[in-house]
């Protein structure tokens, strides 16, 4: 009897029908050292198995919890916030590691650590996956059959949203901002665009000029109306996934850090948290979570677009949306490091990214974490006493795909190659070397 592999549409993530389903629930617990193998999130994890003809059992949807929908129980210290999400989807490979980061030229006795949210996945890598765990659960619960979001032409958020949507059998519509001369041309396959197009995202381009005049909210609403007129059920995710619901992603990240510290050395305490800021949701969650939890670390955000005043106001709106009762100025410090502009880099900034990779093995993206780390070290140099004897946690928010958009600018910085010189006296015989 012959067999064949047939590709069929995936079952909708919101309602998987199984035969004689057995649902096994178990609370996972934290264990081990910082980022040790076997370290799991303290959430209820549901595994679904179904009986098959011929006996035995096999997994119906997933093994180990990835892509599963879970009931969400907030940290006790955040349980008073409103509204509290009811569910999440497990999309990230969490917890992400924390390790020492020995950057050169740190102030005296300053300890620098790094939380590797760039390792939260591959296609879904970066900080956006934490927000999407909550946002995609809400999209599915609302009965959506597609999602809409907005971003720059190399948006990490848009790439992550496109992948998450495809995982959950939702169509994805992306409105991408680009230059006026490129708005009516094929955007190509560089970096994030390659992943988005591979997973089948629908891409609409808009010029920066039109974007500035109309705004992301109105653009998304226009596309939403068009899709609804076609009988679709779209769910709009804001730029960067940054709304009050998405903020829970980094409130939860603080619980993760808190538990990592508890299970490794107990008494260790970070004094400061440093992170890039591009849309505001990550810094809102980190600052709110740090203040409410046992961490109490001061959050320093380095903004790569807009200005600190804008982000203080925007974060205040997210905080108020959760009825937290804090003033954003009291729980976060925001500095401007956008330099030439969003997603634009000086040669010095790109050399910094290259030098950090060569010195430490940590590859920073040029748009977010690269500028944040650059700004952090400049501030440390200008104000060494401010950082002296401090334990600092730098949050790497991912964005590696964005480096591919900087290849031409970085070529002259990484010229360490040459042809291997092989003396004529070395024996040669055809077929000796296997070409794998």
Question: How would you describe this structure to a colleague?
Answer:
The protein is an alpha/beta fold and 436 residues long. It has helices at residues 128-141, 156-167, 192-198, 208-214, 216-229, 244-264, 281-292, 308-321, 328-331, 347-360, 369-382, 384-387, 407-410, and strands spanning 21-27, 44-51, 57-59, 69-71, 87-89, 98-100, 111-116, 146-152, 171-178, 202-207, 234-236, 272-277, 298-303, 332-336, 391-396. The protein has a six-stranded mixed β-sheet with strand order 6-7-15-12-13-14, sandwiched between helices. α2 (156-167) packs parallel to α3 (192-198) and α6 (244-264) packs across α7 (281-292). It is globular and about 75 Å long. It starts with 20 loop residues before the first strand and ends in a 26-residue tail after the last helix. The relative contact order is 0.12. Mean pLDDT is 88; it is low at 1-59.
Radius of gyration over C-alpha positions, nearest whole angstrom: 23 Å
Query: Largest sheet, if any?
Result: 6 strands, mixed
Helix content: 25-40%
Secondary structure: number of strands: 15
The shape, in one word, is globular
Distance from first to last alpha carbon:
35 Å
Report strand order across the widest sheet: 6-7-15-12-13-14
Taken as a percent bin, the fraction of beta residues is: 15-25%
Number of distinct helices: 13
Estimate the mean pLDDT confidence.
Answer: 88
Helix vs. strand class: alpha/beta
Please give a quick description of this structure.
With 436 residues, the protein is an alpha/beta fold. It has helices at 128-141, 156-167, 192-198, 208-214, 216-229, 244-264, 281-292, 308-321, 328-331, 347-360, 369-382, 384-387, 407-410; strands spanning 21-27, 44-51, 57-59, 69-71, 87-89, 98-100, 111-116, 146-152, 171-178, 202-207, 234-236, 272-277, 298-303, 332-336, 391-396.
């Amino acid at each position: 009897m012959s067999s064949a592999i047939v590709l069929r549409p995936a079952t909708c993530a919101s309602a998987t029908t199984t035969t004689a389903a057995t649902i096994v629930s178990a609370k996972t617990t934290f264990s081990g050292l910082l980022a040790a193998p076997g370290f799991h999130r303290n959430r209820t994890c549901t595994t679904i198995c179904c009986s098959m003809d011929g006996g035995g059992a096999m997994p119906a949807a997933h093994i180990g919890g990835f892509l599963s929908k879970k009931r969400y129980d907030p940290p006790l210290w955040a349980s008073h916030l409103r509204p509290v999400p009811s569910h999440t989807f497990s999309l990230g490979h969490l917890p992400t590691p924390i390790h020492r980061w020995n950057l050169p030229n740190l102030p005296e006795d300053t300890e620098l650590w790094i939380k590797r949210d760039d390792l939260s996945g591959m296609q879904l890598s970066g900080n956006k996956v934490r927000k999407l765990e909550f946002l995609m659960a809400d999209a599915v619960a609302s009965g959506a059959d597609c999602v809409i979001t907005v971003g720059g032409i190399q948006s990490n958020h848009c790439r992550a949203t496109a992948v998450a949507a495809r995982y959950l059998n939702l169509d994805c519509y992306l409105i991408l901002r680009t230059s006026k001369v490129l708005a009516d041309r094929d955007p190509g396959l560089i970096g994030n665009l390659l992943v988005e197009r591979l997973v089948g995202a629908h891409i609409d381009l808009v010029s920066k000029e039109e974007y500035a005049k109309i705004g992301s909210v109105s653009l998304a609403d226009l596309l939403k109306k068009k899709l609804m007129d076609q009988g679709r059920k779209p769910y709009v995710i804001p730029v960067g996934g940054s709304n009050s619901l998405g903020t829970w992603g980094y409130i939860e990240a603080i619980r993760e850090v808190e538990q990592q510290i508890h299970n490794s050395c107990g008494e260790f305490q970070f004094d400061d948290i440093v992170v890039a800021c591009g849309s505001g949701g990550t810094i809102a969650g980190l600052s709110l979570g740090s203040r409410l939890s046992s961490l109490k670390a001061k959050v320093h955000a380095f903004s790569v677009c807009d200005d600190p005043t804008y982000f203080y106001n925007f974060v205040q709106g997210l905080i108020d949306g959760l009825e937290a009762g804090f003033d954003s100025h009291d729980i976060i410090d925001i500095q401007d490091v956008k330099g030439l502009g969003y997603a634009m880099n000086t040669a010095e900034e790109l050399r910094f990214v290259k030098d950090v990779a060569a010195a430490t093995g940590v590859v920073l993206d040029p748009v977010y974490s690269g500028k944040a780390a650059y700004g952090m070290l400049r501030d440390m140099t200008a104000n060494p006493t401010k950082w002296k004897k401090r334990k600092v946690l730098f949050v790497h928010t991912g964005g590696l795909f964005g480096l591919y958009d900087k290849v031409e600018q970085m070529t002259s910085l990484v010229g360490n190659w040459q042809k291997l010189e092989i003396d004529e006296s070395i024996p040669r015989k055809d077929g000796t070397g296997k070409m794998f």
